[in-house]
Amino acid sequence: ALYEGHIVSAQELTVLLQPVFTQNPRNLILFLQDTLSIDDFTYLSESYGNKNPLRNQVNKLLINLLQEILQSSPSSLVLPAVDCEATRYLLSFLQESGDRKLTNVTNLNVSQLELNTSKPNLLVVQLQPHVSILAFSAYRVCKLYVFLFIDKIIGRLTMDLQERGIHFSVIYTAVRPSRVSRRTDVMWELRRQLMATEEEDSLSYPPLNVTTGNDICILFYARNFSLKANNSVFIDLANVTFVTQNVDISSSECSDINTTLSLKYTKPVNGISSLEIRFLMTNKFYEGSARNWSTLDSVEIVQDGEKFAKFNVSDISAPAEYSFHCQLVGTSNLYPARLIPSNNEAKNWDVFISRLQIQGFNIENNQFSYASDCTGFFTPAIWMGLVTSVVLLWILAYGIHMIMQLTTNSRFDDPKGPTLSVPQTE
């Protein structure tokens, strides 16, 4: 029983999870999603009303519980939630809380999974829907479809384990919230201040950094970092890169002229034993602007040490003292910053990076410098506004010109005097 707006801290979360560790079953399944919020469940229930489209018992119980909280809570606007800082370290906490064998479930067919039920097990299932490679606006449109797709995955895994007679407990959470919650301490502030508070969006996890000695020479951050090989194999690298940091960056190189960020992954998915992604950056002096600029020249993908894919990069540059930021970077023609395949192997890869921020030179105080965004000043919305303003000004000028051309009669008829006669010669 938690009051509305209460945010469960990491310490409170450990207390709430203690019964899971002290009672049977000792097998634990952690369904870890990329983004998730309570509003996602309430949105789903409001969309379908009494017709619940979810099929597995986990999500059904969650929605029923939320409906009970909504009915009993004095305020249905703000519900209790778990702090994303607490869920970020949930995996390491579960590993330390008991002698559990950690198993990462990448193959959704758990019937082939070998489990020693005599010892406690911890199964970690990364819920990565295949439509997460879409742009952010398209993802919001397909939000309901994504949720139903994840519901089928959870139902299939739990049913397979039940058929095998394996007893388990389930934890369903996410690395970060899907939206920024409204802060209750500013509810009575001015509307302008409230809107500014709602739009606050800090980094949900620290950026990846490469150090030389005691100094950081490369900073790299992305909200979503995913690849797709041969239009079939989806690889999500956001969690292993920034959350668990299960990535090898020892091959990265730093200098005042050339910088290479090397990300090596071991068995990111079934069928790929090793994967290396390189970001090659240069720092050059340009006479036209009389200053140094840092540019991301190319991106290279090496699969299993043999298959080499190279992409040329367009429109990723910034002053050498700044970092670079872009909302969408990838191989699609719709993205502001594109990765253009330069060899045949690169045509087999699709790359999607959202909220990219990277800096390879002149890092001060071990943090990103001022960001130079890929979106120029004259965006399509600004051009539309300018064109519309010009058309309206032209209409106004034409109207004023027509009014100025109006003339009045030189003579007027006086009703009290004689009738005014105008000769036809006039």
UniProtKB/TrEMBL annotation:
Domain V-type proton ATPase subunit S1 luminal: 215-361
UniProt-recorded Gene Ontology molecular function terms: ATPase activator activity
Membrane-topology descriptor: Single-pass membrane protein
Superkingdom as given in the UniProt entry: Eukaryota
UniProt keyword annotation of Transmembrane helix present: yes
UniProt KW Kinase keyword: no
Compartment list: Membrane
Transmembrane segments: 381-401
Coiled coil: none
Domain V-type proton ATPase subunit S1/VOA1 transmembrane: 376-414
An individual GO BP term: regulation of cellular pH
PANTHER family attached to this UniProt entry: ATPASE H+ TRANSPORTING ACCESSORY PROTEIN 1, VACUOLAR ATP SYNTHASE SUBUNIT S1
Family membership: Belongs to the vacuolar ATPase subunit S1 family.
Entry protein name: VAS1 ATPase
Gene expressing this chain: Atp6ap1
